[in-house]
């Protein structure tokens, strides 16, 4: 029941329902999922790097810390890009209204 929402599209403007053979793919949601995966990976790398400091159990590549910082900056830039979309702004406004 939960996933059936992803298997068809309703276009009320032209009174049409389409059911593609494959699931409907939402490009924005795919980008959000990829961003979230990258964000979690960056945080885990930072955690492992911090835990390893002083112990030297894991050998990191030279300049790992600066590379990690660059990854974090790029990831933050992608987040700002997603937050600047009208879709995000509408969803954010709706969530604010629900919390009031």
Summary of the model, kept short:
This protein is mostly helical and 100 residues long. It is 60% helix and 6% strand.
Helix-strand layout with pairing:
Blueprint: E1 9-11, E2 16-18, H1 27-52, H2 64-83, H3 86-99
Antiparallel strand pairs: 1-2
Helix pairs in contact: 1-2
What does this structure look like?
This protein starts with 8 loop residues before the first strand and ends with a helix. Strand 1 and strand 2 form a beta hairpin. The chain is elongated, with a radius of gyration of 20 Å. The protein has one domain. It is mainly α and 100 residues long. The protein has 3 helices and 2 strands. It has a two-stranded antiparallel sheet with strand order 1-2. Helix 1 packs antiparallel against helix 2.
Whole-number tally of structural domains: 1
**Helical content band:** 55-70%
Q: What is the oligomer described by this structure? A: single chain
Question: Which regions are unreliable across 5 or more consecutive residues at pLDDT < 50?
Answer: none
Order of helices and strands: EEHHH
Using brief descriptors, characterize the structure shown.
two-stranded antiparallel ribbon, 2 strands, 100 residues, 3 helices, mainly alpha, single chain
């Amino acid at each position: 029941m939960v996933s059936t929402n992803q298997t068809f599209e309703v276009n009320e403007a032209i009174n049409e329902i389409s059911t593609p053979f494959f699931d409907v793919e939402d490009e924005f949601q795919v980008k959000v999922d990829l961003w979230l995966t990258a964000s979690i990976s960056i945080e885990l790398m930072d955690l492992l790097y911090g835990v390893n400091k002083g112990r030297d159990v894991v050998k990191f590549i030279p300049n790992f810390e600066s590379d990690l910082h660059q990854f974090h900056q790029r990831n933050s830039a992608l987040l700002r890009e997603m937050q600047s979309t009208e879709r995000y702004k509408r969803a954010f406004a709706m969530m604010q209204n629900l919390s009031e």
